Every structure is written in structure tokens, then in C-alpha cells.
């Protein structure tokens, strides 16, 4: 196998960063293909916690090549800050960080529009990260976006920027009643100052990746956010603005779907969600509190407390279907160590009837009633367990239950944030 994708199967924050970090050892390239610095990947190496928003977690491995693909929307200042950060911790990005010249740039007016749109939505707000992601993708689809390649052509960039500033000022004032004025000269010179710092990393990543795959180099695609936040198959409109499932890989990396060989999903042993939107297994009680406290469920990008609930396998099964998962990695199993009983959602009832498909609308999903199986807890620490056989019987049964329900294997189980707090039953590559 030379290409492998890792995607979230829930609403994000499944612990992809740690798993991608481990799998990066076997990769030549680690590639992000969608999203921007709305993501927050936390990786703990030798007790030191690193939070990355844009750079793939693979950047922490010396010598690994990291790609920010054409499907991303990039905050250049955020990119530069992360480059500086990894240099400070002794890692060099030179010669191994590649940023697509086709990726779109996030400008201050995108962030203002994000805030204005959320404000106007009021109680129905999405709860975005306010990083300007949605407005930047809106410009991309509206064919008025500015791509990194545009910054190379001074006159054309100036013209596009002027037009965009005017359009956004008018929109903010007249549509959102949220007037903001943007200083063209300041934005232009600031963007160019940062662009010059990162220009050496900018290249045509589409041909780079196609050549690498054709040469049998090993490419790991790292999904940010997750399948249920995917703009097409997620819980629309409470989603992010990109294809954050594996469906986004071909378009966002510029490679044929025939080039993605295996796709593995990541699921937490329970479920969390940040921001608004339906969440059938959400627990607004002490059990939810305990999950939040044990799982340290606070957003790594925004610091917001995450909503918590039991594992929703019915939703994960939908993700397994759309991504055609080859297997599922379970993370944060140790968070369940404290529970006498563990509930797992295995179906939804809508208007008193069991349904056989994951609802397409947020309205339906709000109305479903989860159907639970209750499994016995293990009430033992699993953090230091190194092999599947050492896990308590009840924990093994929990994993087997997941495998049987989904019909796919669980090759890796994570029982803590550190790299070595991981049970590897079968090597993915
Ligand atoms: P946006 O991506 O900032 O537009 O936010 C859209 C939705 O996706 C909101 O509900 C966010 O909380 C959620 N979201 C975006 N990025 C992440 C992430 O990395 N983890 C979890 N949720 C996210």
C-alpha cells in the first residue's frame, strides 16, 4: 500500500493528530487536503504538548514531507506563526514543507464576515471557529477568491484585493449591518510581507503529489474536522465548509480517487461536538460532565467546552459507509475507565419507528431518539496497557462490539495522549 487516508468519523476532535503522528513514521508525505486553521491537532511527544492548526502533525517527524493541498484555505500569518513555532522547538521545515499555490488565502474580511454571519444567525448560529473558513470557501465557489499564486502577480493581486475589499465592505454594511472598513494598503503590504516569508514553501503540489504516488512513495492524507462536519454528507448546515470526509481527498489534493488505496476512520470511545447542531446522544447531565472532565474536552482552537455524549455507532456506521472504511481506530478508551455501565447507540427511532439510514436533515436528526445497548464497564485503568490481551475483558468486549456492529476491524486503540499509550493490534502500514 502506498496511499492511506485518516479521517474523523464523528464531529471532529477524535484524536486524529496523535494517530497521524504515529502513522507518519511509515509515510514519506503527510498531506492536508481541506480546511484551514479551524482545525486543532494536539500531539504529545515526550510529555510536551504541541497544538498544530495548519501544518500536518507529520511536521514533528524530521525528514517527513508535509503538504498543504490545493483544497485548503490558508491564513498566511497563521502559517508563518506555525513555521516559527516548529523552528523554535528544533524542527526544520526547509525543503520538506510544500504549500499549494492553488490554495485560497484567508483575508481579514473573511473573519469579519464569519463573525457578522454568526451574529445575524443569532440562536441558529453554527458556532464556527471564526477563522473565516466559510467566507473564504464562499469566495472560492463564487470565483472571486484570491489564491496564493495570485500574490506573485502584483497588479492582478492588487486589482482582486481592491474588488474584494469593496464587495465585502458593502456586504458587511448593507447585508449584515456590521460595518467594517478595511485599509487596502495595510492588507496589501501585510500580506506581501508574510507571503515573502513563506514563498519558498509555495509550489505546485498537485504535480508533486501525483509524481510521488506514481513513484510509489508513501502518502498519508490527513483529514481535518470529520465526516459528520463534511459540507456534503455531514449534518448540514451545522458543518464546516469543506469536504472533510475522504470524499474531499481527490479534489483537495488534486489526485484521482483511484490513487487513494485505504481509508481508516478515527472515533472516540464516546462522542463530542463543538458548536451548534443536532447531537442525538448528547448528555446534559453528570455523565456528560464526567466525560468532559475525564476527556479534557475543551476545544484546542477556541477553548470552548465540547458537548459530550455516548458513542453513537449508528452515526459512525454512516461514516464507515461514505468513506468505505477499511478499519476504525478507537481513541480515548481510558476516558470510559470510570463508568459502571457504558451505553452505545445502535439505532435511531424517528416518530416511533426504527430508521434504516442516517438522516439527511438537521431537523430529522434533532427529532431522532437514540436506541442504546448497555455494556458493562471495566472500572480499571487502561492507560498503561500495551497489548489487546492485557485489556480488561469488558473493554475487549466493547471493542469487539464495535467491530461486529460496523463489520470492520479496530487495529489501533488509544488509551492516553502519549505516543506509547497505544495498543497496536495490527499495523496499518
Ligand atoms: P468553521 O469550520 O469554523 O466554519 O466551523 C463550522 C463548524 O465546524 C463549527 O461547529 C465548528 O465548531 C466545527 N469545527 C471546525 N473545525 C473543527 C475541529 O477541528 N474540530 C471540531 N469541530 C470543528
Automatic annotation (TrEMBL):
It catalyses: IMP + L-aspartate + GTP = N(6)-(1,2-dicarboxyethyl)-AMP + GDP + phosphate + 2 H(+). InterPro entries: Adenylosuccin_syn_GTP-bd, Adenylosuccin_syn_Lys_AS, Adenylosuccinate_synth_dom1, Adenylosuccinate_synth_dom2, Adenylosuccinate_synth_dom3, Adenylosuccinate_synthetase, P-loop_NTPase. The keyword Ligase applies. It is found in: Cytoplasm. Homodimer. Plays an important role in the de novo pathway of purine nucleotide biosynthesis. Catalyzes the first committed step in the biosynthesis of AMP from IMP. This is Adenylosuccinate synthetase. It comes from Thermovibrio ammonificans (strain DSM 15698 / JCM 12110 / HB-1).
Amino acid at each position: 500500500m502506498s496511499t492511506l487516508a485518516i479521517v474523523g468519523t464523528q464531529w471532529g476532535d477524535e484524536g486524529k493528530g496523535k494517530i497521524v503522528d504515529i502513522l507518519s513514521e511509515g509515510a514519506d508525505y503527510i498531506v492536508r487536503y481541506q480546511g484551514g486553521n479551524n482545525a486543532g491537532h494536539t500531539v504529545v511527544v515526550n510529555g510536551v504538548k504541541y497544538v498544530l492548526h495548519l501544518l500536518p502533525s507529520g511536521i514533528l517527524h524530521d525528514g517527513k514531507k508535509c503538504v498543504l493541498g490545493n483544497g485548503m484555505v490558508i491564513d498566511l500569518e497563521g502559517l508563518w506563526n506555525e513555521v516559527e513555532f516548529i523552528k523554535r522547538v528544533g524542527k526544520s521545515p526547509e525543503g520538506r514543507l510544500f504549500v499549494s499555490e492553488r490554495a485560497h488565502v484567508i483575508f481579514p474580511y473573511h473573519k469579519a464576515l464569519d463573525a457578522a454571519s454568526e451574529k445575524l444567525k443569532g440562536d441558529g448560529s453554527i458556532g464556527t471557529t471564526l477563522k473565516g473558513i466559510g467566507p473564504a470557501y464562499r469566495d472560492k465557489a463564487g470565483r472571486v477568491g484570491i489564491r496564493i499564486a495570485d500574490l506573485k502577480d502584483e497588479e492582478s493581486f492588487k486589482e482582486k484585493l481592491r474588488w474584494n475589499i469593496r464587495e465585502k465592505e458593502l456586504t458587511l454594511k448593507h447585508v449584515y449591518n456590521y460595518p467594517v472598513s478595511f485599509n487596502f494598503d495595510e492588507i496589501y503590504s501585510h500580506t506581501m510581507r508574510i507571503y515573502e516569508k513563506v514563498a519558498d514553501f509555495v509550489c505546485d503540489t498537485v504535480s508533486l503529489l501525483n509524481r510521488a504516488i506514481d513513484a510509489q512513495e508513501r502518502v498519508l492524507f490527513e483529514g481535518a474536522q470529520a465526516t459528520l462536519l463534511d459540507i456534503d454528507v455531514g449534518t448540514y448546515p451545522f458543518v464546516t465548509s469543506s469536504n472533510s470526509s475522504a470524499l474531499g481527498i481527490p479534489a483537495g489534493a488534486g489526485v484521482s480517487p483511484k490513487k487513494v488505496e485505504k481509508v481508516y476512520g478515527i472515533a472516540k470511545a464516546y462522542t463530542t461536538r463543538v458548536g451548534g447542531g443536532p447531537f442525538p446522544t448528547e448528555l446534559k447531565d453528570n455523565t456528560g460532565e464526567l466525560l468532559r472532565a475525564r476527556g479534557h474536552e475543551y476545544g484546542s482552537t477556541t477553548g470552548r467546552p465540547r458537548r459530550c455524549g455516548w458513542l453513537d455507532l449508528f452515526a459512525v456506521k454512516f461514516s464507515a459507509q461514505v468513506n468505505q472504511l477499511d478499519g476504525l481506530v478507537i481513541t480515548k478508551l481510558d476516558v470510559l475507565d470510570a463508568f459502571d455501565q457504558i451505553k452505545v447507540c445502535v439505532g435511531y427511532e424517528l416518530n416511533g419507528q426504527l430508521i434504516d439510514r442516517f438522516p439527511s436533515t438537521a431537523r430529522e436528526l434533532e427529532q431522532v431518539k437514540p436506541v442504546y445497548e448497555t455494556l458493562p464497564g471495566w472500572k480499571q485503568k487502561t492507560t498503561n496497557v500495551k497489548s489487546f490481551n492485557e485489556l480488561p475483558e469488558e473493554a475487549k468486549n466493547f471493542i469487539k462490539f464495535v467491530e461486529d456492529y460496523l463489520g470492520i476491524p479496530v487495529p489501533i486503540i488509544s488509551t492516553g495522549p502519549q505516543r506509547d499509550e497505544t495498543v497496536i493490534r495490527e499495523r496499518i502500514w
